[in-house]
Amino acid sequence: MLVDFKEQGASLAIFPNPPVLTSLHTEWSGIHFEHHHQPSHDTPEHCLTMHTISIALDVGSTERWFDGHRESEYQTKGTTAIIPAGTLHRCLWQKEVQFMFVAIDPNLLIQLGVEVAAPEDIELIPHFATLQDPLILGILLSLKDELESTNQGDNFYVEQLKTTLVLHLLKKYCAKKPQISTYVDGLSKSQLRQIIEYIHSHVDSEIKLTTLAEMAGISQYYFCQLFKQSLGISPYQYVLQLRVERAKQLLKSQKMTICDVALACGFANQSHFTKHFRKLTGTTPKAYWKNLSVASAQ
Asked: Which of 40, 49, 105, 282 minimizes the number of CB atoms within 10 Å of its CB?
């Protein structure tokens, strides 16, 4: 049985319950995320069209088969299984379980990895759920958090997470480890000036990592690496800080609602704005606005 997670209801072919959270209706390209609560179950044998990384969110014993080879697994939160596309796969668990997974289009792996590896060398190896990978766990939890807070997720942030995940898979879980160059000088002054000007002029609208990387004439992975070397923070964190600072200025004017401020600063919605404003300032936009009102009245 062939399962394509990009299709509506595809996971019901192998799980009894639908996902409690899915990225199916987002504009994410090349990846698909799901969060599951499932009862005791034995999946049918199946092949996936996408490389899939599954993360356990509770403790339990499972049995897993890759191309007919079985192993017993004792999973704890963060235990990671890697199921390459085209691998014959089956999994059995005998208690209620909670897990999440991200599925990656094989073409994305080649597209992002072509600068560091020949396409024929990009081959993921199946991994039973006997290991923990903190970076993968952090990325999947961030994807889950984005979906829960915005129903869509910030595409710029998701692109950065996606790029980091793919390069991590290439470095750690491929049959042949690629030779990945390391740059130490950051972006050139002209590249950085062009990128910063573009970000400032588009901070109220969607900014794509692919666009910034193309402007610099390098891959997404190297762009993220060089940008951080130049400014000390990731491209996404820079954009986020800029949006929050602009929001502060708009809130000070007290001429716009918090919802309008959120949209004017490029946030998906008021909830998304509030979450990131609190992270960076320690207070909510509403509390910040009220403090400004009190100060101006005195």
From this structure: 282
Residue 282: burial class (beta carbons within 10 Å; 0-12, 13-18, 19+): exposed
For residues 60 and 145, is the Cβ–Cβ distance under 8 A?
no
The angle formed by the CA atoms of residues 84, 140 and 280, to the nearest 5 degrees, is 155
CA 137, 276, 31, 162 torsion-angle sign: negative
User: 283: helix, coil or strand?
Assistant: coil
pLDDT at 151 over 90: no
Which residue is associated with the tokens 């997670």?
5
pLDDT digits (tens, 9 = 90+) for 256-277: 888 898 888 888 788 888 888 8
Dump the DSSP string for 204-222: TS---HHHHHHHHTS-HHH
Residue 163's nearest CA partner among 122, 120, 104 is 104
For residues 173 and 181, what is the distance between their CA atoms, to the nearest angstrom?
Answer: 18
Contact 99, 60 (CB under 8 A): no
According to DSSP H, which parts of the chain are helical?
A: 106-113, 134-150, 155-172, 189-201, 209-216, 220-231, 235-253, 258-264, 270-281, 285-297
Q: Scanning the structure block, which residue is given the tokens 């319950």?
A: 17
Most confident of 62-71, 150-159, 171-180, 211-220: 62-71
Pairing of strands 97-104, 51-56: antiparallel
Residue-level pLDDT at 179: 64
Angle at 270 between CA 264 and CA 272, to 5 degrees: 100
Specify the pTM: 0.82
3-state secondary structure of 274: helix
Question: What mean pLDDT is predicted for residues 43-58?
Answer: 95
Q: How far apart are CA 216 and CA 202, in angstroms?
A: 16
Q: Is the pLDDT of residue 117 over 80?
A: no
- Alpha carbon distances (Å) from 27 to 109, 137, 152, 170: 18, 22, 7, 24
